[in-house]
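Posting this for the archive.
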Amino acid sequence: MAEAYEGDRARLAAMRERPTLKTIAFMTGLGITTVSRALKDAPDIGAETKERVRMVARQLGYQPNRAGVRLRTGKTNVIALVLSIDEEIMGFSSQMIFGISEVLSGTPYHVVVTPHSHSKDPMLPVRYILDTGSADGVIISRIEPDDPRVRLLEERNMPFATHGRTSGGVVHPYHDFDNEAFGYTAVEKLVKRGRRRIALLSPPKSLTYCAHTRAGFDRALKGCDASEVPVSVDIDTPLADLNGAMEALMRSPERPDGIVCSSSSAAIAANAAIETAGLKLGHDVDLVSKQGLPILNWIRPEIITALEDVRLAGRELAKAVIARIDGISPDLLQSISQPAWPDETR
C-alpha cells in the first residue's frame, strides 16, 4: 500500500515538472530509447507502443528540447518569417501566420516571426538569421525585382521561399498573387461602369508587384480607351498623408472617376477622402480594391473588391520552404494564386 502511494506521488511529481523523454519513459514503463524512437515513428516500434507513447506525450504537453535537438542534429526546427510590422494593418500578418501554422502543425517545425520595418535596412533581419544559425528555413516578403536578400540566402545555401517573384535570374521557391490580372480586371470593371479617367494607388515602385500591377493596369487602359489620372502617393504613404493627397485630388477639376487600389487600408483612406470632398461613392466615382480579408464591403458595400487569399499564401510558402529543406528543386516550388471577385456582376 505504501509502495503504491509512493509510486503515485512520484508520478504526480513527474507531471508537475517540465516533461522530458525520461518523464514519458517513467509514465509508460518503457525505456528512454524506446520512447524516443516511438516519437520519431521508427519502423521497428509497434503501432500500439507508438500510440501509447504519443498519448502520454500529449497528456503531459511534451515538447522536444530545441537546444538538445540542435546539438544532436544541427537543426533548429524553426522556420523564420521575416515580416514587416507595417503589414499588420487589416490582418495581413495574422492571416499569413495562420496559413503557415496550419502546415507546420503536422511537422517538427515552428514558425518564429522576425519583425522589421520596411523603412529600415531589409538585409538586417536576414543577416541576423544567417549569422546566428537561428532557423532551418526563411520566408520573406516585399520582394524586389533583383532582391539582395534572395541573392544572399542563395549564396549561403539557406532554404527559403518568397511571397512575390524576382526577375534577377535566381530560380527560387515563391508564392505570388497575380497582380497583373488584378490590375487588368479592375480597370475593366470600372470601364463597364462608364469610368474613363482612372487613378492607380499602386505599391511602391521598388517592389516587383508594382510592375505587375502597372502592366495589367496599362494594358487594360489601352484596350479600353481609358486614360490615367496621376497620383502623387502610393499605398506605403502614411495613411493621413494619403488621405490628404486624395482629398485634394478629388476636389480638383482633374479628378478621376475611378480608382484602382492595391491595399485595403489605403482604400479606406481614399474612401474617406472621396466623402470629405463631397462626392458619393458608386455615383460620382467608383473604387476597386484588393483585400486580404472580406472587410471592405462591410464598411462600404459600394467598393468593388478582389480577395487575395493571404492565408493560402502562408500555406503555400510553408510547404515550399519545407520541401526546399528536403532538397526538392526550387523550380517545382513556385505558385501563383488568382484574384477572387466575390460579385462578378459588378
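DSSP finds 14 helices and eleven strands in the chain. The mean pLDDT is 89.
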